[in-house]
Amino acid sequence: MYKKFHIKHSYSGIFSEQGGSIGAFQLAHDILAYNHEKGLKIFDKTDIKIVTYKQNGVSVLTEHGTTITGKKIIYCNGFESTEIIKNKFVKLLFTYAIVGERFEDEQSHLNGTLFWNTAEPYMYMRTTDDNRLLIGGEDEDFVNAEKRDSLLNDKSVKLTKYLKKILPDYNFRMDFVWAGTVGETKYGLPYICKHPNFKSAYFVLGFGGNGITFSVTRMELVSKMLKNKKHPLAEYFKFRM
Question: Which domains does the chain show, CATH number per domain?
Answer without folding.
Answer: 47-89+188-237 (3.50.50.60), 91-184 (no CATH)
